[in-house]
Amino acid sequence: MALLNHAAKEITAKVVYYGPGLSGKTTNLQWIHEHVAFRAKGNLLSLATEAERTISFDFLPVELGTIGGMKTRVQIYTVPGQVFYDATRQIVLKGADAVVFVADSQASMLNANVESLENLGRNLIANHLDPALPMVFQYNKRDLDTALPVAALNARLNPKGLPFHEAVAIRGTAVEETLQSVVRLLFKSLSDFYGTEAMAPPPPSALLGPGQWVYLAGGEQRGPLDFEDLVDLVLTSVPEETMVWGPGISRWTPANVVPEIAEHIPPPLPLVALAREEDFPDFNTVPRMLRTALIADEDAAFRQRLALPLAAQGFKIYAARDGAEAWRLATEHRPWVMLADLGMPEVDGFEFCRRVRANRLLSRTPLVFISGSDRYKDRYHAMQLGADDFLSKQTPIRELLIRIQLLLTRYSDLRANPGKQTGDQGGGAAEALEGKIEVFGAPGVLQICNQGRLTGIFTGRSREDSGEEQIAVFGLRDGEIISATVQELTGPEAVYAFLAWSRGKFRFVPGDPGPGAPLAQSLEHLLLEGCRLLDEHRRGAEGPGAAG
Questions:
Q1: Is the peptide bond before 224 cis (omega within 30 degrees of 0)?
Q2: Helices (H) and strands (E) in the chain, counts
Q3: Whole-angstrom Cα distance, residue 244 to residue 217?
Q4: What is the pLDDT of residues 264-320, one digit of tens each?
């Protein structure tokens, strides 16, 4: 999902080039990088698989001008084409905003094109992406005598009549046109999704005097006016969600989430009196790097009511006013507890829960419904879908926090012991952690360390079916691995071996990991490369015919 950064006045979107092996995906990106003029562009980084070149997790970031006053950047990825790299392709496709399907026009490649297109459909669903997201076809290698007629390709691959281009990527024919076509569809999609108000440019600084505000009505800026007049307007004449801009605000913001305005707005439901702070539960049993929460509720006053005591306990809060925004925040930030209402706009609570439980990176995350509905059928359905608890909004805040604290402590399966920080540890946590690998999965355990920016020594132990014990020892600085050993393996190969572990125990102890630079550009790169190697290993174990 595209990222909208109002502070930087920037939209960042993701386009993925998909298709069978050797169809010309990487050739497209190389030609784009060398020949297409952009306002700015980054480096083109390539990773070679066994049988083809691909850009599977590095990308080409390009700047394409402005839209609605926002600078636009597009990150262009490709995926490995062979079917057996499925886990890698799922990860690369995650969060895509648009797709270019590069088909090989040769008659002998028709079945491979069909298979790759079907795989794209499955991976869109696996990543909870809209199968109708912007998409363009490119029929490459049109210069070959064995190329099928375009009508035949459209009949098998493009029955919906999506935009298509006939290309010879190695010569640059229709490469730029393909990119322009998908970018046009992408920008229209972004405008429809975010709306013109969210993308409106900021008011000129000369427009606002001291203490003055402006607001949006019908997509147009109105004002300036004094704060008291704006509050009167919100209370009497315009919706509470009206976008406003004023002193101390860095972006267009709904009036009902601006604290000094929200305090004047009566809540839609009578609020139960807050407990005294000393009556709130102690979250010391929850490691600090796990104290991130997503609160998804249309009611801004209730979001604030729930967020304040959690923030006081050291939680980082992500707030969403509808289900679509909640899903975007969940997949981008992977919070460690999710609190959601049932009746959210866009995507309701039930659908949100289905998506969470079907996502392999979120499926074990605690999810609690806090709803205005207290019907038995709603409770039963929510628990059937995999919710961990179902509470009423009328529940006293103290009881809500106690339930959250007990659930998160039990669910995390991490035991935190006092640790000692030594030297300049950056963002490392002053705690020793231990737990079971099978609760999170090996990649998830490393992501915990990375998200907590831990500095110290990580040790993992796993016993194979043969009875032999495997030991992994990693040195981490600010969440990045700088040294790694698993049995006789060292460096990245040791990390890849650890990612294949399905069970075991781990322990992290803060301290000095010794000298060394990160083993890769980021931990995410190590995880993606490890998935690619696991795909290849699995394919080899299944035999030469397994790829289909």
A1: yes
A2: 16, 26
A3: 10
A4: 776 554 333 444 444 556 677 676 767 889 999 988 888 888 888 888 778 888 999
Last residue of a domain, one of 412, 446, 461: 412
The answer, yes or no, to whether residue 63 has pLDDT greater than 90, is: no
Find the angle CA(215)-CA(217)-CA(221) to the nearest 5 degrees.
50
- Which residues form the domain of 246? 205-262
**Rounded-to-integer distance, Cα 120 and Cα 124, Å:** 6
- Pick the last residue of a domain from 159, 180, 198: 198
Least trusted range by pLDDT, from 143-147, 186-190, 333-337:
186-190
Within a domain: residue 272? no
CA distances for 259 relative to 5, 249, 262, 483, angstroms? 21, 11, 5, 46
Asked whether residue 220 falls in the same domain as residue 167, the answer is no
- Please name the residues in contact with 123: beta carbons below 8 A apart, sequence gap of 6 or more: 86, 89, 90, 93
Nearest to 97 by CA among 70, 122, 127: 127
Same domain for 89 and 17: yes
The count of structural domains within the chain is 4
For residues 50 and 75, state if they share a domain. yes
**pLDDT at position 423:** 35
**What burial class does residue 478 get, using C-beta atoms within 10 Å of its C-beta: 0-12 exposed, 13-18 middle, 19+ buried?**
middle
- The pLDDT > 70 percentage for the chain reads 75
CA distances from 7 to 4, 70, 242, 509 (A): 9, 10, 19, 37
Write out pLDDT tens, residues 340-395: 998 888 888 899 999 988 876 677 788 999 887 767 678 778 888 888 888 888 77
Q: Are residues 536 and 392 in the same domain?
A: no
